[in-house]
Write a structure and sequence with these properties.
By secondary structure, the chain is of the alpha+beta class. It contains 32 helices and 19 strands. Strand 4 and strand 5 form a beta hairpin. Helix 4 packs across helix 10 and helix 7 packs antiparallel against helix 8. The longest helix is centred in the N-terminal third of the chain and has 21 residues.
Length: 755
């Protein structure tokens, strides 16, 4: 078998000006490593099929190389290894991982795949293949491809799992990509793939994706936290050793077999805590958790064994009664089972302790594949993860045509916590936290949802907007005369309820769609506007409507008067006249890549330099993040407002880069830039006489900075302040912040976004 692999490699690498022998050996080593990892799960002719898939992949990618210069075949081999070793998938997934880019990147078709490997493999490969062709303006190619991938949940979850393996390897090798590509891929990852890994219970993969996102979007912060974790490791290890000693002794005395270890929080999690709680690294007490994994526990005794271990831990250390989390009795929706408690150590430090069995631990680390393994031949759908997959399948039945809206609704189900409620007969229902009576009604059945008028919670009458709490017993009240309204969309939270309400409203509102379409067509004719997709899309964007139906409905219902189209035409004509002065043709505004080429023609580089004398290229600074010279930035090509410059850390960056990455332009500050930019800082500290005077002295007298506005508030000896001022660049701002931090009584000075 190995000789055949070598023969394929010899054919595929003829003429390459590289060290062929070394490369052949490396490919063969990776192939052998994959086979060793897969051996325990192989059956029948699996080995033969995997070898055939590898041979086809080698031939298909023979002339292709990654950005790093490595042979492209390294990528499918690594993805296949992640599938088997880190997710726990079998032979079919390995074959699909090896072939996952073949249809997209070569002349091989899905029919060819089906002829070689059967319909199941072909369907999975289809789910992994991006949609080809062009998309309308205003739509998102990325969102359309996400939707296609997510739709495969209704057929085969392995598509999603293989895609996660693919994304993990791409993130691990992101260093060889250009900066704007790094940002696009990293933001896509944090926007959709990390939450998806979380929802499927793949904790390790989710954590690594989040850390890699931070590594490439905030490299300095990532390095700083990593270095601090490294330098404090010895101290943490000593603390953990002393903490677990008495627990180990008591567990051993009780005859319990176990593994106990400290688990450090990952870097992204620490960064989130630093950012959200406005604290310092040194002030975070829960940098790690203690995990107790119970071994050799029969399934029927798992709960009692975990509670026995809990009793031993809390006999030794006092627990915080508000921090007990029992995910054994009612597991999380992604299948996660564990018992968490937070206890006070002998040094006065709170420590989280997680207690679980080996089975629970494997499911928490490897997610869906481990869940499926332990489920075995059980075909019931009572497991939380099965319930969620079924909910997803129901949500996917929606006929909503907006890919971005679909993605937003779907993504809303990823990270949310659950609420546990009961029917009048005592059946448990699990919905996302924040769900209302109306969500509950649609969860039971669409007919009940659309006729829901009120609810009873624990026998008390409540409105349909009532937000359910854990333990509530819900009864739905209905009337035949009730009809859905748009107002319902304001307070429902579940994707299922939103999708069903939208479908019901669409059916009722068809007359408004047709009326609106006719109104627009007549007004276009009067004003001499072409009634085509381009003009309609511009009108949709002008009125900020998410799709054409929304646009038609607004006109048909009278929310937008037909005279507004005249204003749209005037604004559009003014913009066209302005664009006519720019020496770039209109195609540049469709694709940022072609726009970069136009910049390159003029400037000799493919990067937009902000602040130089190249006035032919129009741009504005985004108000949502107010970039100043020195900030890491990117350009974004808008539909109606030209290029906008955003900070990489802009609150909107994640959505822009994850959904419209093809419209991102590399941008840098020019050394010629010489003007003042508005920045905003937030202060807090101890109030005292003369504090405002000292702040003003630093800003105006020492650094000669002009203030635009100053707002200060005091409460019980604490002051907070927000200042908008004019600075030249980030260095200028950092100097100011350092000086302000040195003022007596000042606690913290932070930069905030300006609106």
């Amino acid at each position: 078998m190995e000789q055949e692999v070598i023969d394929v490699m010899q054919v595929s690498q003829q003429g390459a000006m590289i060290d062929l022998e070394k490369e052949r050996n490396e490919i063969l080593a990776r192939y052998r490593r994959l086979f060793r990892a897969a051996k325990p799960v192989l059956k029948g002719d699996d080995a033969k099929q995997i070898k055939k898939a590898f041979t086809i992949a080698m031939e298909a990618h023979k002339d292709m190389r990654r950005k790093s210069g490595e042979p492209y075949i390294f990528h499918p081999l690594e993805v296949a290894e992640i599938c088997v070793e880190e997710i726990g998938l079998g032979a079919t997934s390995i074959i699909c991982a090896l072939l996952h880019d073949v249809v997209e990147d070569t002349d091989m078709t899905l029919k060819d795949i089906e002829n070689e490997f059967g319909p199941k493999v072909a369907r999975i490969i289809d789910g992994l293949t991006k949609i080809g062709g062009n998309f309308e303006q205003g739509t998102s190619a990325q969102a359309e491809n996400f939707r296609k991938m997510l739709l495969t949940l209704s057929e085969d979850v392995r598509v999603i799992l293989i895609k996660l393996a693919d994304r993990l390897h791409n993130m691990r090798t992101l260093g060889s990509m250009a900066r704007n590509s790094q940002l696009k891929i990293a933001h896509e990852t944090i926007f959709i793939y990390a939450p998806l890994a979380h929802r499927l219970g793949l904790y390790k993969i989710k954590s690594e994706l989040e850390d890699l996102y931070l590594k490439y979007t905030e490299p300095d912060i990532y390095k700083d936290i990593a270095n601090k974790l490294k330098t404090t490791k010895a101290t943490r290890d000593r603390f953990i050793e002393n903490f677990i000693k008495p627990i180990q002794k008591k567990l051993n005395d009780a005859g319990i077999h176990f593994i106990i270890k400290g688990r450090p929080k990952h870097i992204y999690s620490i960064w989130n805590k630093l950012k959200n709680k406005h604290t310092s690294f040194e002030d975070i007490f829960d940098l790690f958790a203690i995990r107790i994994i119970l071994q050799d526990v029969p399934a029927e005794k798992e709960k009692s064994a975990c509670w026995q271990a809990y009793s031993i831990v809390t006999d030794e250390y006092k627990p915080n009664p508000d921090r007990l989390k029992d995910w054994i009795s009612i597991p999380k929706a992604n299948g996660y089972e564990s018992l968490h408690t937070t206890v006070m150590s002998q040094t006065g430090q709170w420590v989280e302790v997680q207690i679980r069995t080996e089975r629970m631990d494997e499911i928490s680390e490897r997610g869906y594949a481990a869940h499926f393994k332990y489920k075995g031949n059980d075909t019931s759908t009572d497991a939380p993860l099965d319930r969620w997959i079924n909910q997803v399948r129901e949500t996917l039945e929606s006929e909503d045509k907006s890919a971005i809206e679909f993605l937003e609704d779907f993504r809303g189900n990823f990270y949310n916590e659950e609420v546990f409620v009961f029917t009048p007969k005592g059946d448990l229902k699990v919905l996302r936290k924040g769900a209302t009576i109306l969500d509950f009604a649609f969860e039971i059945h669409t007919d009940i949802g659309k006729r829901c008028t009120a609810g009873k919670v624990n026998s008390q009458l409540v409105p349909i907007s009532y937000v359910m709490q854990n333990g509530d017993q819900i009864e739905i009240l209905t009337t035949k005369s009730q009809k859905p309204s748009e107002d319902w969309l304001r307070f429902v939270t579940t994707s299922k309820a939103k999708a069903r309400i939208k479908d019901l409203l669409k059916e009722e509102n068809k007359v408004y769609f047709s009326d609106g379409k006719e109104i627009i067509a007549k007004r276009f004719k009067v004003l001499g506007l072409e009634n085509n997709l381009e003009t309609l899309n511009q009108l949709r964007a002008y009125f900020n409507k998410k799709d054409y139906n929304d646009l038609y409905y607004s006109f048909g219902k009278g929310y937008i008067h037909s005279d507004e189209i005249k204003k749209f035409k005037a604004d559009r004509d003014a913009r066209i006249n302005k664009q006519a002065k720019i020496e770039l043709d209109n195609k540049a505004f469709i694709d940022a890549k072609s726009f970069e080429k136009e910049i390159k023609k003029v400037k000799g580089v493919d990067t937009l330099f902000i602040g130089d004398d190249l006035q032919e290229i129009d741009f504005t600074l985004a108000k949502c993040c107010s970039p100043i010279p020195g900030d890491d930035v990117f350009g974004f090509l808008t539909v109606n407002e030209g290029i906008k410059i955003h900070r990489n850390t802009c609150p909107n960056a994640q959505q822009l880069l994850s959904q419209y990455g093809n419209r991102v332009i590399k941008a840098r500050w020019s050394s010629q830039v010489a003007k003042a930019f508005v920045a905003s800082i937030h202060l807090d500290g101890l109030d005292r006489m003369g504090m405002i005077q000292d702040i003003s002295k630093v800003i105006s007298s020492e650094l000669h900075i002009n203030m635009r506005s100053l707002a200060v508030d005091t409460n019980d000896g604490i002051f907070t302040g927000d200042i908008k001022l004019y600075v030249q660049d980030t260095r200028h701002l950092e100097t100011l912040m350092q000086k302000l931090n040195g003022i007596e009584g000042m606690n913290k000075v932070t930069r905030v976004d300006v609106e």
